[in-house]
Predict the structure of ABC transporter ATP-binding protein.
Amino acid sequence: MELKHVSKYYGEGKNKTAANKDMNFEIEEKEFTVIVGPSGAGKSTVLNLLGGMDSPDEGEIIIDGKNIATYKPKELTKYRREDVGFIFQNYNLIPNLSAKENVEMATEIANNPLNPVEILESVGLGHRLDNFPAQLSGGEQQRVAIARAIATQPKLLLCDEPTGALDYETGKRVLSELHAAIKNYNATVIVITHNRAIADMADRIIDIQDASVRNMEVNPQPSPIEEIEW
Ligand SMILES: Nc1ncnc2c1ncn2[C@@H]1O[C@H](COP(=O)(O)OP(=O)(O)OP(=O)(O)O)[C@@H](O)[C@H]1O
């Protein structure tokens, strides 16, 4: 995928600010990419653009040879539903649905979904199928969110601070499950993080500052997750 001269503005007149300004980068398929940068730099904005939750004001976003920046709302909905999985810091589960029902929310509208029970078992939650989010730990809730996101095998897994609310060990487990999606079904994974240590496990590190790409590095030897410490 490639971003070419992407800009996104918020506000009008003298309040107009660029959340993304002439943003350019490329990501190869099946890579684990980490986006780092200070608060307010424009990381979530670019993730939302990649996920078709919003459209840029300028530039092109090329995914699988298609420029999604030109998509109409209906095409964007289809793209989000079929090609993208989202993971958020605060899990975003539906409180009054069980773990299994939360995953079924995604699989019921998908074309080739995995089995919700099997996918929950694969993230170690086979014994938690009927529990509600409030009955689960933070790490367990995030693993339900991962199960929900990967149950439709999206090409693109977009994660906004997925370990931000988790302790060290649980954070590592969540990262390892996100990484497994690359091997398991050829996903491309992009993770926003404030934790630069996570960059050691990435194939690619994109550093965003002041709404633009400050630096991009390809990591020739990503470390196994078990070896990363922070
Ligand atoms: N919906 C919006 N309306 C107005 N301004 C916005 C909106 N979304 C983002 N911004 C502004 O755009 C800039 C970039 O925000 P963004 O959320 O992308 O940063 P971020 O790097 O993800 O920050 P953080 O690490 O704190 O989440 C900020 O100045 C923010 O205030």
Remarks:
- The chain has one domain: 2-9+22-186.
- The mean pLDDT is 95.
- Residues 168-185 form the longest helix (18 residues).
- The two ends are 30 Å apart (CA to CA).
